């Protein structure tokens, strides 16, 4: 027989559990004037989305709104899934035009991208400080409508893992983060200046130097141990680069733990090796030939083009008009060829510079303009920022679609992005996993 005191305790515990469940089961009903399905490229009108907890409970035009539900009226807006940015650097915040540009910009793009200023930045800022910068940048990404991002490295000593955990545990607002940990690279990483034999360790922990198979295996496993959810490698940037066999070895080792591999590549040889190895994605790929693009298409290797606009190159990097034109022509040509060949593409911005007066999210969206300029249809650009990205990141069963049982990552824009893609720059409502972060109605 249960004692009275014990029975009271049990009753109290069950009441707490019941109230907690009732609270978590509260329904939010969103009235959608228009609802876009990026996968099919269609728009439905006068739909209702029921959200319960972190997930979508139901969607339909004839749903009844349960009594007591919180109602959000977005009848004058277009509703769609939260956006993805598959190449962010939340923990690298350099001031615009502070980079070194005194070398041949035209043919050695990588040298000014990762020169002395980035090395100095890594030496002068602790992982803790960079994590705090990541909090700010992550919040700005979320407020702009990016509910999921893949951080592509440059994180010090695993600042990305700590921020991901903090967001998951509700300590700070931010997007869902697929983080890459320390970038795996041949010795030297992308620091082409400032390293010398008397201080061989200056590139670490920014890069995990790995040249032999044993070193590569250790780098892969250590990244996984310390919380990486994807692996990022450097496929070129040095006279010595990973071979296709090296890259496949990394891919296979990562696959044992269920992780994908993304590769920084700015040369034709590096991109070809990545496409041949069949990794998940090639980042940048500015100088990919048609042959390499066709190989990428054949092996389902995504291109995350990080296709900067001329405005960003000029305002951020301080490029001359001649250099801006060279890179814009190169980028637009590669976009057109990749789209025509059918290479799967996902959106990535690669923003690393702080431009006064602009948020991280605003700068990330500027990359859209390159795809508009290249003539890509609005429907495909939207796919790059939603369903294609979700599939690349391997989360297509969790988020990226407005379907029953999926994460309630929902945004609203004033107009229909299938008709006016630029409306994505005016996101007025952001919900992530059932919590409203922006509501300008």
UniProtKB/TrEMBL annotation:
Residues 78-435 form the Amidohydrolase-related domain. SUPFAM superfamilies: Composite domain of metallo-dependent hydrolases, Metallo-dependent hydrolases. It holds the Pfam family Amidohydro_1. GO terms for molecular function: hydrolase activity, acting on carbon-nitrogen (but not peptide) bonds. PANTHER family: ALPHA-D-RIBOSE 1-METHYLPHOSPHONATE 5-TRIPHOSPHATE DIPHOSPHATASE. This is Amidohydrolase-related domain-containing protein. It comes from marine sediment metagenome.
